[in-house]
Design goal:
150 residues, mainly alpha
């Protein structure tokens, strides 16, 4: 009986972690890429457009949050190679890709961290973290993601 409950709990936790990951620039489908390999992204929605990372945003604090909540899908270096992220369709995005960093502003990253990707045009398994992290914590994650650029 204990093994059955433990197995069910483990399965539930794995499923929740899988839902928390999501693609952002999945190579297999070439979503969001032009023929010249330039990454394109939709316009940031009005609620987030123009938001700027505060000077107090800490990449060090962001790394702690990323390691605990994002690395399972995006991998320890943000390359999209986490154990759950590779199994997603689309796979977890490569947050270390310099072309991604060049293509998007901090407002875009904050939007995606806040709202996730469970809507068009993303249609990914990326969990919205607005209900998990407060605004300051989400900016910490943005600051850390910016350090991942190769």
């Amino acid at each position: 009986m204990k093994i059955t409950i433990l197995s069910a709990l483990l399965l539930a936790v794995t499923a929740l972690l899988a839902v928390g990951c999501g693609g952002d620039n999945a190579a297999p489908s070439n979503r969001g890429k032009k023929a010249d390999d330039t990454i394109t992204r939709p316009e940031v929605i009005a609620e987030y457009k123009g938001k700027e990372k505060p000077a107090t945003a800490s990449a060090e604090e962001g790394k702690k949050l990323f390691d605990a909540n994002c690395a399972t899908c995006h991998g320890p270096t943000g390359a999209g190679d986490g154990p759950l992220g590779k199994a997603l369709n689309p796979p977890a995005g490569d947050l270390s890709n310099p072309k991604l960093h060049d293509a998007v502003g901090d407002d875009y990253l904050f939007w995606r961290i806040s709202e996730g990707g469970g809507f068009a045009p993303f249609n990914s398994g990326m969990t919205p973290f607005k209900g998990t992290f407060n605004e300051e914590q989400r900016w910490h994650v943005v600051a850390y993601v910016r350090t991942l650029k190769k």
